[in-house]
Design a protein that fits this description.
Layout: E1 37-38, E2 46-47, H1 50-70, H2 74-79, H3 82-87, H4 90-96, E3 116-117, E4 122-123, E5 129-135, E6 140-151, E7 154-166, E8 180-183
Antiparallel strand pairs: 1-2, 3-5, 4-5, 5-6, 6-7, 7-8
Length: 186
């Protein structure tokens, strides 16, 4: 299935908080394991198992893609953390990701696909889980940078950065002519 059929002018990135060192999505996939890993940056908080990470990233990105197909970020807004909902309205999410709404999407571009992690997930000093990766979609690769925070006993989406770049182009820069959107936790 095709996710992107034409080039679109770059989206204005809604940068709400600065993260140091955003890592580009690469080509390597983390080897699956169900053993929890203890994060050095935040003692007592463990990185979820690979199966749990796949489920977290996949649910977030499927909510994002549903929102893109519906041309409204309401589905994504319903999926994000209540803390994130208090800070950002559906209208603000629509503005941040508006250029994705112009993409010609046929069917479900993520059908039968799973996220591929480009780096090991990390727990930041503040306790947030950071996950970087992509989906092997064509003709453009859908890359993501997701931030989750522990709320109660579960991880909730606090920040999202998504870009779509032709497979033949390098992934690192957000300065291409493909859509990009970014909302980060406060």
């Amino acid at each position: 299935m095709q996710i992107i059929g034409k080039t679109v002018k770059a989206a204005a990135v809604a940068t709400l908080v600065t993260f140091a060192g955003l890592l580009p999505a690469g080509l390597a996939q983390a080897a699956p394991t169900d053993k929890p890993r203890v994060a050095a940056a935040m003692p007592g908080i463990e990185v979820p198992s690979d199966d749990q990470l796949v489920a977290l990233a996949d649910r977030a990105m499927r909510a994002f893609m549903t929102s893109v197909r519906e041309k409204s970020m309401q589905t994504l807004w319903n999926h994000i953390s209540p803390r994130f909902q208090e800070k950002y309205s559906v209208a603000q999410l629509n503005e941040a990701f508006r250029d994705f709404f112009t993409l010609p999407i046929t069917g479900d571009p993520l059908a039968g696909k799973m996220p591929i992690f480009s780096t090991d997930p990390q727990i930041q000093a503040g306790g947030n889980l950071v996950v970087d990766g992509f989906y092997a979609t064509t003709p453009s690769r859908l890359s993501f940078h997701l931030v989750f925070g522990m709320e109660g006993r579960s991880w909730k989406l606090l920040g999202i950065n998504v870009s779509a770049k032709p497979v033949s182009e390098p992934v690192p820069s957000q300065s291409s002519s493909e859509p990009a959107g970014d909302l980060r936790p406060l």
